[in-house]
Amino acid sequence: MSTSFSWSRRNWIKQTSLIAAGATVAAIQSTPALASWFSSEGSLKGKRLLFFTKSSGFQHSVIAREGNSPSYADRIMTGLAKDYEFEVENTKDGSVFDGDLDKYDAIFFMTTGDLTQVGTDGHPAMSPKGKERLLEAISKGKGFMGCHCASDTFHSAGPANVNQDKPDPYIAMLGGEFIRHGRQQEARMLVSSPKFPGLEDVKQEFKLNEEWYSLKNFAPDMHVILVTETEGMVDADYDRPKYPGTWARKHGEGRVFYTSMGHREDVWSNDIFKNLIVGALRWCTKVADADLTPNLKEVTPGAATMPKL
Question: What is the pLDDT of residues 164-186, one digit of tens each?
Fold first, then answer.
């Protein structure tokens, strides 16, 4: 993660291991292992997903590997692929973007930093041409998904707490950018697009214990799916009006989805998160449709307001 964060990561890594309570969910019923909407209609069978988890910056524990063993997130994605009959390739090797991207229907990032640098995890970097090929592939119709630290990747030039007129091309594609975060805490996510695939079993809002990102550089054409409710949150990072926490948008012909959730293992194992990821994959690969009416100003009118950091 970026070096511009306000809470001691070491303290929270220690604290995370001590927190036994999982995500607290309010105003919903427990969802089954397979979401209630799952059927042969709109099936993901035959779809292929690239799950890319290179960390050129901070490496989150949920995507860290011990030797050749898959990470926690790798195992979750492999399980979802089995349940929903799609194929997934888990990799940290940035050279994959110099290869055949046509074989993937969608690409899913949980990454940090400048991926054209080897950086923290030591795995091969993405070439500058690979970055161009990724953005071109999405523009031509490939689906893209990002979670949590995907917004802490390829940062824009300029001050961290300022909205940039010309964000990095990757950030412009994604639709938003990480500023920094405070301590992990329970916060409310408000559902602003209840018909988005994967949210069929979720009501108006839910609570989750998570490492919440404070974000900026929001694409004006985004369709906000979940809103981060800052009322009641602690730390200066969230001293701002409510802002988008999950959204979808088009990048050329490609469908782009992002959610700020995904730091903690208990979030990855939570049915709300898993159903949302599968729903997003269905939407990104065009087996499901969703309303993409831009609603940034309507549901988060103060989103451009920066916290005083």
Answer: 999 999 999 999 999 999 999 99
Query: Tokens 């799609």 sit at which residue?
Result: 86
Contact assessment for residue 290 and residue 276, using Cβ atoms and an 8 Å cutoff: no
Q: What is the C-alpha to C-alpha distance for residues 114 and 162, in angstroms, rounded to an integer? A: 19
In terms of DSSP H, where are the helices of 210-288?
Answer: 265-268, 271-284
Contact 263, 210 (CB under 8 A): yes
CA dihedral angle for residue 7, residue 9, residue 14, residue 16, rounded to 10 degrees: 80
Q: Within the chain, what is the greatest distance between any pair of CA atoms?
A: 49
Amino acid 33: pLDDT: 47
- At 184, list the tokens: 């992990």
Measure the CA–CA gap between 74 and 91, rounded to whole angstroms: 9
Q: How many CB atoms lie within 10 A of CB 73?
A: 24
What's the pTM?
0.89
Residue 63 has φ and ψ, to the nearest 5°, of -115, 5
| Residues shown for the chain | 309
pLDDT at 41: 57
Domains and CATH numbers, the chain: 23-299 (3.40.50.880)
Tokens of residue 87, six digits: 């194929």
- Residue 105 has, within 13 A of its CA and on its CB side, a CA count of 17
